[in-house]
Amino acid sequence: xxxxxxxxxxxxxxxxxxxxxxxxxxxxxxxxxxxxxxxxxxxxxxxxxxxxxxxxxxxxxxxxxxxxxxxxxxxxxxxxxxxxxxxxxxxxxxxxxxxxxxxxxxxxxxxxxxxxxxxxxxxxxxxxxxxxxxxxxxxxxxxxxxxxxxxxxxxxxxxxxxxxxxxxxxxxxxxxxxxxxxxxxxxxxxxxxxxxxxxxxxxxxxxxxxxxxxxxxxxxxxxxxxxxxxxxxxxxxxxxxxxxxxxxxxxxxxxxxxxxxxxxxxxxxxxxxxxxxxxxxxxxxxxxxxxxxxxxxxxxxxxxxxxxxxxxxxxxxxxxxxxxxxxxxxxxxxxxxxxxxxxxxxxxxxxxxxxxxxxxxxxxxxxxxxxxxxxxxxxxxxxxxxxxxxxxxxxxxxxxxxxxxxxxxxxxxxxxxxxxxxxxxxxxxxxxxxxxxxxxxxxxxxxxxxxxxxxxxxxxxxxxxx
Length: 466
Description:
The chain is an alpha/beta fold and 466 residues long. The protein folds into two domains: 2-107 and 262-464, Zn peptidases (Aminopeptidase, 3-Layer(aba) Sandwich), CATH 3.40.630.10; 109-245, Roll (Aminopeptidase i, Domain 2). Helix content is 30%, strand content 24%. Helix 3 (25-44) crosses helix 12, helix 7 (264-278) crosses helix 12 and helix 8 crosses helix 9. It starts with a helix and ends with a helix.
């Protein structure tokens, strides 16, 4: 009877195993090496502009030409310096559709305000406005760096990158000492203990040597900025300066099986889909890896998933394959295309297991996560992938020995979240969310499993070359 039960269970019940139990020693070595490359990428790239620059440079080294050349079958297209797309033309007619992986390359952070610099009690500080969903208390009392650009009135562009080099100065938000926080912080809800307007960066403390001048520390800081970068206070108005953790990504654990670092939501999917399309030579269908901005604030604006960038990319593919693109051709390609929305899910946190429903939650180290729907409550604000498409994807993954799992983003009434999938699906493209699970999502130090990272790469590679 036991033998029959075991046989029946093996036949009917899906038993998940950690990816590490499935890998050979040779595969483990490959997984760990791939994780090391991602760790270095996270340490180097802290903003969407820096991501686009990194991708553009590496794409050209791998044979992708800028779209204006319109010659070869591999091209890339940049949209306003904060989103980018890579495409390879396939052997099949474009009317049979395009294989698309879409990920966003923006992450929660702090941004300097248009008039950021001020002085208070003889300290110079920068005012900030937080971007996306953050826990404000996580951004105090840690080293922070400044990344971005300043465009002067004459159009000259000045790059800012201060804080990540070990020789650089850093910035920080001074928190209140526990001896004095009882009335000011401890009696408040955790979401209210740190006010948004108090997320101000320490920028200097040495006064300008003129005792009759007011705001001498602010003036001294502006003198430093003018001498080093040639900028005046008004130049901050035409600037995009992001405040991010001044910490490199690191291996986590004695076994080095995890990567910890800022910006994994969602540059982890950007890195894996970029490496996936670069690992493909002759795909059957034309492929498109799309990297968009502004997802963390609702996918709004000219560089987001709701912009016309996807349409422009499809039009470019059609023009290269068939010389002309019409509205009907574009619509037909959309209706025949299929997409993976590359975004992360939440892994079960051992300290907060109650917010997830275990049987439908992702686990760290169990492979890439297929997320049929995200949203909140009654599936509001989500793309709910079809059973037909999920059947096709799981069959593809199994055929290519991709280790995968499924997951929801929290219990039904607990919370939820959204991705770009709904904006891709509105074109008539079959779409499902697919990416690794993270611990500490949206924190300054997110955690992924190197196994899940590698399986995400394998999943995107299998999909794009199908």
